[in-house]
Specification:
The chain is an alpha+beta fold. The chain has 4 helices and 4 strands, in the order ββαββααα. The protein folds into 2 domains: about 80 residues, P-loop containing nucleotide triphosphate hydrolases (Rossmann fold), CATH 3.40.50.300; about 45 residues, no CATH class. It has a 4-stranded antiparallel sheet, covered by helices on one side.
Length: about 140
C-alpha cells in the first residue's frame, strides 16, 4: 500500500485552478522529493495533502483512507508536515517544540505520560539534537 495516494485532484484558490487532474503515489518508508519551478503547484499540493486546502475534485488518501473524512487527531498521529519556514515559535525550547508532536496522543487536557517522554527522547537522540534540546527558540532555528 502507498502511504499517500492523490487521485485526479483539482485544487486552487478562489476561481483559479493551480493543480488540474493530478494523480501521484507516495510510497511508505521512502523519502520523496517534489521538485519544479516556482508557481507550478508544489506548495499547493503539500497544503492539500496536509488538509490545509480542500480539493475541488478528486481525493487524497492516507493509507487507503480519504484524508478529508478522517478525524483530524487521527491524521495527526499518522502524518506530520514540516513547512518551508521552519522557524519555531518564540519562547520554546527545542525539547518543548518536539514534545508538541505527542499532542494527538494525549487525552483531553491531560499531561504527557512516560511513554510520550520516551518517544521525545528517542526523537531527540536519532536527530542528533541532544546538545541543543534545552536551547530557546531565540537561539535555535530548525
Amino acid at each position: 500500500m502507498k502511504a499517500i495516494e492523490v487521485n485526479k485532484i483539482d485544487v486552487g484558490y478562489a476561481n483559479e485552478l493551480i493543480i488540474k487532474n493530478l494523480s501521484i503515489s507516495i510510497p511508505s518508508n521512502k523519502i520523496t522529493t517534489i521538485i519544479g519551478p516556482n508557481g507550478c503547484g508544489k506548495s499547493t499540493l503539500i497544503k492539500t495533502i496536509a488538509r490545509i486546502l480542500n480539493v475541488k475534485h478528486g481525493a487524497v488518501f492516507l493509507e487507503g483512507e480519504e484524508i478529508h473524512k478522517v478525524d483530524t487527531k487521527e491524521i495527526a498521529k499518522r502524518m506530520a508536515i514540516l513547512p518551508q519556514t521552519a522557524e519555531a515559535p518564540g519562547g520554546l525550547t527545542v525539547y518543548e517544540l518536539i514534545s508538541y508532536g505527542r499532542f494527538p496522543y494525549k487525552k483531553g487536557m491531560g499531561s504527557l505520560k512516560k511513554e510520550d517522554y520516551e518517544y521525545i527522547d528517542w526523537a531527540i537522540d536519532v536527530t542528533g539534537l541532544t546538545e541543543v534540546q534545552n536551547r530557546l527558540r531565540e537561539r535555535f532555528f530548525l
